[in-house]
Amino acid sequence: MNIKGIHHITAIVGHPQENVDFYEGILGLRLVKKTVNFDDPGTYHLYFGTEGGIPGSIITFFPWPGAQKGKIGSGQVGVTSYAIPKGAYDFWKERLTSFDIEVKEEERFGEKYLTFEDVHGLKLEIVEREKGENNPFQHDQIKPEYAIKGFAGAVLYSSQVAATEKVLLDEFGLVKIDEDDTYFRYEAEGDIGNIIDIKKVSEARGSMGVGTVHHIAWRTKDDAEQLEWRQQLTDHGYFVTDVKDRNYFNAIYFREPGEILFEIATDPPGFAHDETYETMGEALKLPEQYEPYRSKIEEALIPIQSTLKK
Question: For 86, 162, 184, 231, which has the most beta carbons within 10 A of its beta carbon?
């Protein structure tokens, strides 16, 4: 078994409307699911991705308005990387600047990156990549030839770099393809979410809060393969949770030795099984156990509005 790449990344942010305005309104990602944190139903769980919400494109958020700001550091995903089509770099530089977002240009392993932060301090970057299908979702001036395809990958800040590398290579089957003075680079076999960099020197320890990544999830094709992953990791001494039903995928979790919380999530069933493809993200969807409390949950949640023109 080899991991194909990233399934989704989950982060903690502030006000939910600011979150929608940034990821849908500015980055042009589709709000594909509006639900709640299954462990804390008084908090939204918002999912943004490509038009179809394909694995490898989904970034999810727990909005905690008024919560303490976190500190990005070791034991976390330090930077979330997005892939755009070849030739779209200048479009995104101009677009981000037009929204008064401070953009920096960096180079890593021969690729040019636009680096910036979202409205709540989460570190993001955009890079051109050949691989991956174009995203047909259109919003504002963002046409398919410019639209974000999904994740390019992520930069991991590990407290034990060699141990995290061992998980990626020996457990997940990624291949080490390059290194420079600052980073190691690894590649999975998928087309998106497949390039992982690890910073060689550990950062100061991170702390959870607004503007930080909570966990990174990796792809597995189905429930049977997920159970194989669980058995393999358990046999190799990792403490792995039981399977958690997350409605749109099943999930197992473990904290790798570099202190980053890893999840392995199934590709199916996806996001259209409890609403139509055309209406994904419009209604608040609740898991069955919370439906009897819908009115109380809706009353507790801050109302949010899509930026899309109907």
Answer: 184
